[in-house]
Write a structure and sequence with these properties.
Order of helices and strands: EHEEHHEEHHEHEHH
Number of strands: 7
Strand order of the largest sheet: 3-2-1-4-5-6-7
Strand content: 5-15%
Radius of gyration: 25 Å
């Protein structure tokens, strides 16, 4: 049996990945989810999910420290393989083997101003356990290149597998009907941002880009009108 190790609730990005992977994988392979539950990330009881409940509640510990100090050593033995759902759980390899890990990103190290000091330090420490992994899965080629370039993994051990999607949520739908439901203009072009509001997503840059795009488009339209009108006049005159 494979143990899918996860400490993120379904409402989060890593949580969505973990729970969707679990639901699909268990259809064809023998798998259980090992889930760390604290006050911040409770989930209902569910078949195939083995909970490890954190017996204490300290906000900072729940989100920034338990994945390094508490959770890894509590993971039960007896599984043929442990699939760690994110880089934050890599220390599991110190206590349980064999392990593979899904590596999401190096955001706390690449954008240090956006993350607490303790998160950056502990992530740097837990990434050292990548050397004990049987395999490392990254969600993109870029994430793979960052990992290798910064010396956390050997290229031969890393495979990029892009994230999938939930077909129950993301599926084709009539454009006009969708826009009417969302009270959006029926014909105008729309730029959709699907990221969160975290500082590292740089929403202000997106807004600036939209503003520049609008200005350039307006300038282009004025230039086109200036060019087209004389051409029409010349063509009309040449016929007369």
């Amino acid at each position: 049996m494979i143990g899918l190790v996860n400490n993120f609730a379904p409402k989060t990005g890593i949580g969505k990945y973990s729970f969707n992977l679990f639901e699909q994988a268990k259809k064809t392979i023998d798998m259980e989810m090992i889930y760390l539950e604290s006050k911040d990330n409770k989930i209902p009881e569910s078949t195939g999910i083995k909970k490890i409940k954190q017996p204490f509640n300290f906000p900072v510990f729940n989100k920034s420290i338990s994945w390094y100090f508490y959770f890894p050593k509590k993971i039960p033995s007896g599984y043929k393989l442990y699939h760690l759902s994110s880089q934050f759980l890599a220390k599991t390899a110190k206590f349980r083997k064999p392990c593979i890990v899904t590596h999401m990103d190096l955001a706390p190290l690449l954008f240090p101003k956006d993350y607490p000091f303790i998160t950056r330090v502990l992530l740097s420490k837990t990434l050292q356990y990548y050397s004990d992994m049987e395999k490392i899965i990254t969600i993109s080629e870029n994430a793979k290149n960052e990992l290798v370039k910064m010396g956390f993994a050997e290229k031969e051990k890393v495979t990029a597998i892009p994230l999938g999607f939930d077909p129950k949520i993301f599926k084709p739908k009539d454009k006009q009907e969708s826009r009417r439901e969302l009270n959006l203009p029926l014909e105008k072009k729309i730029i959709l941002n699907i990221g969160s509001e975290e500082p590292r997503k740089n929403i202000p840059c997106l807004l600036k880009a939209c503003h520049l795009l609008k200005k350039e488009n307006e300038s282009l339209l004025r230039t086109t009108r200036d060019l087209v009108s004389p051409c029409l006049l010349i063509e009309h005159g040449s016929r007369g």
